[in-house]
Amino acid sequence: MNDGLVKKLALTGDLSDGELAELIENGALDGELRLAADERRREIYGDEVFVRGLIEFTNFCKNDCYYCGIRRSNREASRYRLTADEILGCCREGYGLGFRTFVLQGGEDPFFTDEALCPIVACIKNEFPDCAVTLSVGERPYESYKKLRDAGADRYLLRHETADPVHYGKLHPASLSSENRKKCLFDLKSLGYQVGSGFMVGSPYQTTENIVADLRFLQKLDPDMIGIGPFLSHSETPFADFENGTAALTIKLISILRLMFPRALIPATTALGTVDLRGREKGLMAGANVVMPNLSPVRVRKLYELYDNKICTGEESAQCVDCLRARVGSVGYRIVTARGDVKKQTEEARRASSGGHQVN
Which partner for 245 in 69, 181, 231, 293 could form a disulfide, CB atoms 3.0-4.6 Å apart? Predict the structure, then answer.
């Protein structure tokens, strides 16, 4: 085992493919890795943890991804759509609780055309001009992304899930392609969105080489936000009997991501909290700096079921915030009321510090 791998990653922000694979597969350096990642996040973001108010506004989806509980073929799913007034109501409640970023997340629902979604975005920005609006509604044409950007959307989350086209094909039907997913991400960047991507950890058929490819793709994309979470199975999918991803590997990869992308906004996800009751706390201690409490109406939370046994489906929004504030505080961090934009490095500082290495 190369005992200098963590120090090298912390110093340069990169390793060779072989070194990354070694670090991923061997647990001997996990403690050192976590400490180095926490030190790096504190250098840039201190003890601040940003909150994003998550509004799961539709669980209709035209796609049939093999891992997802709201896939089109799940006939057991109880479908719903929030109205524009309901979405705005969630934002108003969230604003009163201190949220300054709202994340509108949904399946790829044909009902929410540009004509339906753009006015909702515009209304949120008009009523809450000091807030950021993040969209997470999947693959759309360039022209659609542009209209939504013009309507006021600030950020867009679109996980690439896996960068390897062969592996992508094992997780998705032939109607979806890794090539188009990546094209969408670069379209979003070209339009000036703050872009988030990421991948599943421990998804069916995933190899260490797949994970290394994910890290290399993220270096190419250079996203503002990176969201990863363990694969969690759903009983009404083709992957119902596959083993879940682990908290341990997810947490290790959060640390690796923090050292490779020091300025990225990295959430401690609900999926991580589902697979491990203290998963979100462990994620924060490993370098994450974002949490996403749910602002959706309680009546629909159990219906947005991407995987089985999702946590926090019965809590009111204020309960979610109070719970998270206590959890964040218990491990030495604090939730702050702010938009929580990525802290970009100046070009002068980038040149001075990079030394020819990849720096986010």
Answer: 231
> What is the rounded distance in angstroms from the CA atom of residue 318 to the CA atom of residue 339?
19
Q: 82: which residues sit within 8 A by CB, 6+ positions away?
A: 55, 57, 58, 90, 296, 297, 300
Q: Crossing angle of helices 208-221/247-260, nearest 10°? A: 30
Q: What pLDDT is recorded for position 356? A: 42
Query: How far apart are alpha carbons 236 and 71 in whole angstroms?
Result: 9
CATH 3.20.20.70 fits 35-339, yes or no: yes
**Chain centroid offset of residue 227 CA:** 3
Task: Please state the separation of Cα 22 from the chain's center in Å.
Answer: 25
Of the candidates 128, 191, 135, the one whose C-alpha atom is nearest the C-alpha of residue 337 is 128
Q: Could you read off the pLDDT of 286-315 as tens digits, one per residue?
A: 999 999 999 999 999 999 999 999 998 888
> Residue 130 and residue 80: Cα distance in Å, rounded?
29
Domain-wise residue ranges, the chain: 35-339
DSSP SS3 for 46: coil
